Amino acid sequence: MPTAQDWIDALALEPHVEGGYFRRTFQADHRPPIATPAGERFTLTSIHYLLTHWSPVGHWHLNRSDILHFHHHGDPVTYHLLHPDGRHETAVLGQDPRRGEVLTLAVPGGVWKASHLTAGDHGLISEAVAPGFDFADMTLGRPDELTALFPDHEELVRRYCRAGGPDAPAG
């Protein structure tokens, strides 16, 4: 069975600012761009994304675009979602429906998201983003700002915010 390092090498993955590793796999540059309040975007982009036992957390972040997540290989990945109304939702992306794991997870734009490797060596997923992803459309979570928005979830917020804040180095 391939290891986390095997996937990093085979897919030429690089460290992601939110944690884990990624590589863009598609952008719809053959179609006219979409106008958004933040500027023009591709209609769709996609990435491979990998969490590993040494980089097991995708730290809190907010995207403007809708994102579909697909589990491909390895161990389950748990997602925590904080909705604008304060509601907390969890989902486990994985290969075993008997354990309540799902192959696909849709996260609407405007929902705060954090993920972590549930157990094991790695979890490999892909994401399809519409309108297409642009780093200008992503906000990394700051503990004090998120606890002010979600006071009922302070422990969860602090657990998955990057130590040292969003400007700390990934890894």
UniProtKB/TrEMBL annotation:
Transmembrane segments: none annotated. It comes from the Bacteria. Residues 5-140 form the DUF985 domain. This is Cupin domain-containing protein. It comes from Streptomyces polychromogenes. The lineage of its organism: Bacteria, Bacillati, Actinomycetota, Actinomycetes, Kitasatosporales.
